[in-house]
Specification:
heterotrimer; A mainly alpha (about 220); B alpha/beta (about 260); C mainly alpha (about 220); A: about 220 residues; mainly alpha; MetI-like fold; about 85% helix; elongated; B: about 260 residues; alpha/beta; 6-stranded mixed sheet; 4-stranded antiparallel sheet; 9 helices
């Protein structure tokens, strides 16, 4: 009886939840893509840049990594409007998670680049490649392959972090779920349902990551 | 003649479908020092591990000091005894491993006292006194507060022997205790074992050190394809091999 | 941009922020402790030969690790009462964070157990200790020391996750920061101070934990 009631309510709420899921995916994909691009840059700076610049970026990374994502989201939401940057809650939230993502990807890239044996650079230079070419054809491909498992893991972290946008009023999956619950009071069922969808999302990403890892394995 | 200290009867052991032991019979009296030689894969290490019950075996029985260990017959069926009893049976024998297996988080002293306190139920100072006596015997009393990571391989193995023997086992088992050691560290360990032999300790030794086996043993056993291929006093076995298999093995071994 | 910094409102409520920081630390400490107990049990379940135990542990770890913690927090606080489990907000948060920590620590401990050499267990058995005693006196102490760095990282993550308690109005640092933000409109100052407090706390915790790691490390 109760289960059919839940199915009934689920049918009524399907539009709202579908909208929410789309927003969740949009936030996650945007943050992961933008954060990764920024993170690659951050990682390169941490390894190769001019010292003062390196220090500045190191400060950025440590500051972001020391701050809870939730605080980043709230700060981004409240602060930007005060200093005259008019962003929607969605944009402010994506910005916060992008920044969070970039600091993590940056650290991964730094670690991977530094873990590559010196002999690789020397061998590349020895056959006459410029530094740029060495980086592009020798170092970066190896680093990217190495960070892949951790990067996939980070991607699931971003999906999870997207729930924080519910607190600043972005109606992604969690907030839509809460709105649905406020109408039908089926909190157990709908929170469980939301949890299940997040699980399926993250589990698929994880599986996909393992699949990629196997395909790209060279060592 | 006194009752034998170790009796192994018709011991069989399989790993999946590979039969590693195919009916081994062995008898040792108190004070015997028996060395098992043979090529790798002949089952000698497995035999030793069965006596310490680190391996299950499918057929046969092992009796240590009059007590059948590991298994009992209940209602006409052979059953493995519960772990608490198996643990007590294991304490009848002491084992020294090829890879020492010292507890890395405990000092040399802590390694030796752990069993005395937790298994024998001794008070700490009593255990320390016994442990120090044995560490002294293996020449490492002044290293008693060192951790395994701070000791050489030879020193670690000597601590491991002290740890086993401090438990006052009826029978000591040595499983290729020098195989993992650098050549210059082998003798310090072998000397400890010879020293124990002079004291009348009953020992079953798996080794590749032929000269050592010759010197220390009262009897040599040659294992071949899961069975005892040949046995006898060292002079007999080493000088007059009766089977071509043993002759071949000895020819390829270095002394 | 013409903005004048004014930290007065933040300093006036600084004791609240500090109290919030303290509460967050306390929540993290309780959760890592209880979570470690769960993690230990689940890690042994994961490597056990009993496939039912293994299955339960795998489902627990996979489910928790793939679900956002905020969903778990809301589930425990808002949904469980529907099943008759009614907890205060602090208790509810501690339960959630503990279960969450347990799943991550299970993986840490499982990795630690798998990395131990087989001979360690055999050496314990060989001197006549039972399986339980060997686990208690040898396997667990060695494994825990080996995974200390991972434990430290997990603790710092958990501490940062306590900020989410603000979402169910547990009065920790983020909760107070939001309150000050709303009451005073000193937005930049508030969040600057709050995040600096988190960063500083993480830094101090990390340094402290590294000292403990060094002290407990197996000498070599």
């Amino acid at each position: 009886m109760e289960f059919t009631q839940f199915l009934n309510e689920l049918w009524i709420a399907r539009g709202a939840l579908w909208q929410g899921l789309q927003l969740t995916i949009a936030v996650s994909v945007l943050a992961i893509v933008l954060g990764t691009v920024l993170g690659l840059f951050v990682g390169m700076v941490l390894v190769y840049a001019w010292r003062p610049f390196k220090l500045l970026v190191r400060l950025y990374v440590d500051f972001i990594r020391g701050t809870p994502v939730f605080v980043l989201v709230l700060a981004s939401f409240y602060i930007l409007s005060v200093i005259g940057i008019q962003l929607t809650a969605f944009q402010a939230g994506v910005l916060a998670i992008t920044v969070f993502c970039s600091s993590h990807v940056g650290e991964m890239v730094r670690g991977a680049l530094q873990a590559i044996h010196r002999g690789q650079t020397e061998a590349a230079m020895a056959i006459g490649l410029t530094f740029r070419q060495t980086f592009q054809y020798v170092l970066m491909p190896q680093a990217l392959r190495q960070i892949l498992p951790t990067w996939v893991n980070a991607a699931t972290e971003m999906v999870k972090a997207s729930t924080l946008l519910s607190v600043i009023g972005v109606a992604e999956l969690l907030l839509s779920t809460q709105q649905v619950i406020s109408r039908n009071f089926l909190s157990l069922e709908f929170y469980f349902f939301a949890g299940l969808i997040y699980f399926v999302l993250n589990f698929s990403i994880e599986r996909f990551g393992r699949h990629l890892e196997r395909r790209l394995a060279v060592y | 003649m006194a009752d034998p200290l170790l009796v192994i009867e018709n011991l069989h052991k399989k790993f999946d479908h590979l039969e590693v032991l195919r009916g081994v019979d062995l008898r040792m009296n108190g004070g015997d020092v028996v060395s098992i030689i043979g090529s790798s894969g002949s089952g000698k290490t497995t035999l030793l591990r069965c006596v310490n019950l680190l391996e299950d075996f499918h057929e046969g029985r092992i009796v240590v000091d009059g007590q059948e260990i590991g298994y009992a017959v209940k209602g006409g069926r052979r059953v493995r005894l519960p772990n608490s009893i198996v643990a007590r049976h294991r304490a009848l024998t002491g084992m020294a491993f090829q890879t020492f297996n010292l507890f890395p988080h405990l000092s040399a002293l802590g390694n030796v006292t752990l069993g005395l306190i937790r298994v024998r139920g001794m008070k700490k100072d009593e255990a320390v006194a016994i442990a120090e006596r044995w560490l002294d015997r293996v020449g490492l009393l002044e290293r008693r507060n060192h951790y395994p990571g701070q000791l050489s391989g030879g020193q670690q193995q000597r601590v491991a022997i002290a740890r086993a023997i401090a438990m006052n086992p009826k029978l000591m088992l040595f499983d290729e205790v020098t195989s993992a050691l650098d050549p210059e560290l082998v003798n310090e360990v072998l000397n400890v074992i010879k020293d124990l032999a002079r004291d009348g300790m009953t020992m079953l030794i798996v080794t590749h050190e032929m000269k050592f086996a010759y010197e220390v043993s009262t009897r040599i056993i040659f294992m071949n394809e899961g069975r005892i291929g040949e046995e006898g006093p060292p002079s007999e076995v080493f000088n007059n091999p009766k089977t071509p298999r043993l002759a071949e093995f000895l020819k390829n071994s270095s002394f | 941009m013409d903005y004048r910094f004014n930290f007065d409102a933040v300093w006036r409520s600084f004791d609240l922020l500090l109290a919030g920081l303290g509460l967050g630390l306390g929540l993290a400490v309780i959760s890592i402790f209880l979570g470690s107990l769960i993690g230990l049990v689940a890690a042994f379940a994961m490597i056990s030969r009993n496939s039912l135990l293994r299955g339960i542990a795998v489902v627990y770890v996979t489910a928790i690790r793939n679900t956002p913690i905020l969903v778990l927090i809301f589930f425990t606080f808002f949904a469980l009462p529907q099943m008759g489990v009614r907890l205060g907000k602090v208790e509810s948060f501690v339960v959630t964070l503990t279960i969450y920590a347990g799943a991550y620590l299970t993986e840490v401990f499982r990795g630690g157990l798998m990395a131990l050499p087989r001979g360690l267990r055999e050496a314990g058995l060989a001197i006549g200790m039972t399986e339980w005693r060997t686990n208690f006196w040898v396997i667990i102490p060695v494994m825990i020391r080996n995974v200390l760095p991972a434990l430290s990282n997990n603790f710092i993550s958990l501490f940062k996750d306590t900020s989410l308690a603000a979402a169910i109005a547990v009065p920790e640092l983020t909760f107070y920061a939001r309150q000050i933000n709303v009451n005073s409109f000193r937005v930049i100052e508030t969040w600057m101070v709050a995040s600096l407090m988190y960063v500083a706390a993480c830094y101090v915790i990390a340094a402290g934990l590294r000292r403990i790691e060094r002290k407990l490390a197996i000498p070599r």
